[in-house]
């Protein structure tokens, strides 16, 4: 039997528990050209909140009654004339919040679980890592000496963004919630400074910790932090709009950055990105990232909770901030 | 004697008449290396509102007690060992709102009043024309087939932006206030469509007139029109932030674009520009613009009012929209 988390209704604001329902359905056999994958880990990401909205976006929304979309990693346990995958293969997929999936292999790729543990392939070596890599290198186009500010800096994307920026010779300031995360940024990830937005006034803290202003702002949160960052940008600054987690559960309109005219004064650029656009270069990025990891130059944390039954309370950690690094659900 | 308009106080909201005071002071003689210019025309621009604010911007603010900064064009009537200018030369300068100026010639340049009438050198062949040229070609990087939306489209900058975009094979939609201006866009400037923001619902009008969305939005106005345009951008769209006249007189915070996450969904860019950055290429731009004008491919209107005494009521036309094309004050 296959435990599946089904989208039951469209949430307004912070999703409530009855947004989803757990169903147990029989596992069907893979048809010709398909494989059956047993999921080991499921990726929980802020973007999932967006996929639940019935609106035009970069991918179609999850429909009511469908399995909740999510990245997943697991092992092929049955194969039916599949051209590329065989039993025992470790596969990263968009398999959704369920214990098993049947797939033709579209948008799936094989990884080696002996090189890195499975959860890393959902984090630093998966979408969040790719987002960080292409966001900071291709969109922000950092160069040595840049002053780089990152929000959501202890998160799955932000923590990698900052480490890559350090590798490239930038000064890196991270914004995160709580002393524990800020200590992690400085002591474990090598950031130059950290701002605790939960206990510090963000404007004052930026004055203190970015006295020369910033060349790059990598934004995962939106809202007042984006607005504050706009007041500190330097000439020709680049702002990467990667996410806006502070705004995803708004019931009314989201807050727009009222300081956006700083873009004009500073001839600066604000650019949105979606990691899917870079798929043709994922393998190059994964090689770089893997190499940095093996050299001890890049580290990542996965925060792992257990059981599809615990999806809801785990999912909420994305928005409460009660997690560290990449949030992952272990399928048991 | 020299009539001079002096900044008397810093305005809050829409400037009141006592923001400036008119002084009459003796004309002094040019010192060694200086010239005395008699102004013929003074340029009135939305940017002047920003120069009155005491805050960091792309140029220092006008100080209280100083002559109000403005572009100007006039004739050298006295010269004292100046290396480049002689009596009778026609000079474009930042001479300010006054009848005469003394200058070393810094940031001034000579033009030929026989090629084009003086007011054109403050409009299509001056800063607004340069802003349009570099904004649409260098910042927006238009290419044939692009769908280009322009706000403030009947203004000094917008009217040129749209004509250049048409020259380059784009589809051009202009937003302006009132039927008269909209007719002008279509009948005189060759725009493909026009939206009258004073009588039309902007969201509905954009649906009708840009059914395929937009590749470029050239923004002179900010506020709700920017926000609406964000809902219509296509993949890899470019938004040029040239100005935000709807927001310049706000007493509170300006309105930020709450739909800015459309940048993410559409991998789009919002970039600010200041024309001064392109000064080394002004002459190339002026040659292109002059050629297009002589070929009848580029036209411009100047709306000319008379007398420094009438500065205040003329200046207000920038914000009420009661003007057509480039607003100029004739010095009498």
Keywords:
24% helix; homodimer; 6-stranded parallel sheet; 2 domains; 9 helices; alpha/beta; 332 residues; Quinone Oxidoreductase, Chain A, domain 1; 26% strand; Rossmann fold
In short:
The structure is a homodimer of 332-residue chains. Chain A has 9 helices and 15 strands.
Overall structural class of chain A, as computed from helix and strand content, comes to alpha/beta
What's the helix count of chain A?
Answer: 9
Mean pLDDT of chain A: 96
Helix content of chain A: 10-25%
Q: Give the C-alpha Rg of chain A.
A: 20 Å
Shape of chain A: globular
Order of helices and strands of chain A: EEEHEEEEHEHEHEHEHEHEHEHE
Give an overview of the whole structure.
2 copies of one chain form a homodimer. By secondary structure, chain A is of the alpha/beta class. The first copy, chain A, is built from 9 helices and 15 strands. Chain A has 2 domains: 2-122 and 301-330, Quinone Oxidoreductase, Chain A, domain 1 (Alpha-Beta Complex); 127-276, 3-Layer(aba) Sandwich (Rossmann fold), CATH 3.40.50. Chain A has helices spanning 47-51, 127-139, 158-167, 179-188, 202-209, 223-230, 262-265, 282-294, 311-320, and strands at residues 2-7, 20-25, 34-43, 72-80, 90-93, 100-103, 109-111, 147-151, 171-176, 193-196, 214-219, 233-241, 269-272, 302-306, 326-330. In chain A, the strands form 3 sheets. In chain A, strands 3, 4, 5, 6, 7, 14 and 15 form a 7-stranded mixed β-sheet that branches. In chain A, strands 10-9-8-11-12-13 form a 6-stranded parallel β-sheet, with helices on both faces. In chain A, helix 2 (127-139) crosses helix 3.
